[in-house]
Structure to design on (79 residues):
């Protein structure tokens, strides 16, 4: 469970993590193995209160798809 505030939480089932291949330079092995992570969070399917859903959906953020899914890619620390 991810605690946002005293009254707002996000359950683990609402977050989708997947390992993907990183882009760019990083050595011989980095492009052969999954060394980056995609985090996906579907705002509309979540149990967030409607007020918070609307605030997120109204943001002009390239990480939020037109379907209302937040997609964050993390690849800054690779091994």
């Amino acid at each position: 469970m991810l605690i946002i505030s005293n009254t707002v939480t996000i359950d683990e089932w609402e977050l989708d993590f997947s390992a993907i291949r990183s882009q760019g330079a990083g050595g011989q092995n980095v492009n052969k193995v999954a060394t980056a992570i995609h985090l996906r969070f579907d705002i509309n399917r979540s149990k967030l209160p409607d007020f918070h859903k609307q605030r997120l959906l109204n943001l002009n953020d390239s990480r939020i798809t037109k379907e209302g899914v937040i997609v964050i890619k993390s690849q800054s620390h690779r091994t």
In short: The beta strands are 2-3, 9-10, 15-21, 34-42, 69-74. The two ends are 27 Å apart (CA to CA). The mean pLDDT is 84.
